[in-house]
Amino acid sequence: MFQSSCVRTARTASHLTRQASQVRYSSRVVQEHDVLQLRQKKPYAFAKQHLSPILRPDTTIKLDYGATLQGSDLIGRPIPSIVTDSKGYPVRLAEVTLSQYLTNQPRVATPIYPQDASLIVSLLDINVPVPGEDPEADAGPVMELFEAGTGMGSLTLHITRTLHGANPPVPPNLRRAMLAAPYKRGLLLRNTATDDSPVCGDMPHAPELDSPELEAQLQAYRASRRAILHSLDVKSSTSRKAHGVVQGFCRGRYVLDVDFHVRTIKSFMESRFAENGRQPFLSHAVLDLPGSADHADLVVEALKPHGKLVVFFPSVTQVMEFVVWATETKQPLHAEKTIELMPGSWAPGFTDAVGGREWDVRTVTPRKAKREAATAQTASDGDAGASDVVAAEPNTVQVCRPKVGNLVGGGGFLAVFTKKLPNSSQSQEGEKVTSEESAESTPSEG
Fold it and tell me: Which residues touch 314 (CB under 8 Å, ≥6 apart)?
């Protein structure tokens, strides 16, 4: 009995030491409007993981086993740390990764999974200097990218993370006000946008700020940006959900790096061409929508020379149809490559879909060994005279195997094109090289 008491005392002291070290060495604390990864652990059961809602003091978070947490109990705590839910089970607080945040969102559209979005960003090869680092870039035009098919906002967040460093910092008071403000009313279309639909303004998801000073500050910041992503969708509900997803990550850090548009590609492009005299203005473009060839001609016209056009297709036959369209309509494009996206697998429930095949690698204690250890511990506690009886540590075994019965997602094809130079002689030279390469790859007769 004395030995068991000492063990429990040592464990309690160790737990308190860990808590103290967390408070002392944690890099930051939970703030209002954060989103966290919550890991709930019940004894003799697998841990349950959850994605918290956007935290506010009055937020009630529902967990497994009928337990709950209050947002007011989490705000102000260090990350990482451990709290206790309403049922007395420990819950570990941790930062949520971008892939966890996106994969565990409620679905309103089929997302571009994180592993595929990362590949698209890598193919675009975006390199932007911070303000003041490159005077030539600061004096040049704004870098503009285009995304058609906003969807869940997955690719939107991946691209804006790359562009974020090129823009000046958002004033803290403006950022806090935008997170707390509701949306302005009357800005969205009730039906799917068409070429003749009225324009929802340059900010269809504008916040209802408290003062004219904040509104002026917002407009001044938007005018000072050096890199912008234009994300377009024809459905107001989808675009509004995607805006909420982007604003919910890292307390709205990247939401001002993107301009959302609820309109058609033709409506957007023709309005920009009317402003700049049909000059190309896009550095890169990504299309993820049905019938890409029906809308791509205006996007190609808006691309700057050497700009990349990345088009997502569910099947390789659709890639062939797009290539045939580009050839027959003589689009100024070089077909660089076509890449098959490999599907990934992950377990049901809370997941981290970063690609690849997930394996189960862990150390476990067999149930039989647990029962034997518990029996030995009970015997040692009940025999007061047997002070030399020590309960044996249960034997552990290692598990190493691929997980089966998992969800499979992702896949498809990416077609990558580059805009040709406007000089016709260079374009003809490029076409000649392409034809010569094709001839070299064809076996000769005889």
Answer: 411, 412, 413
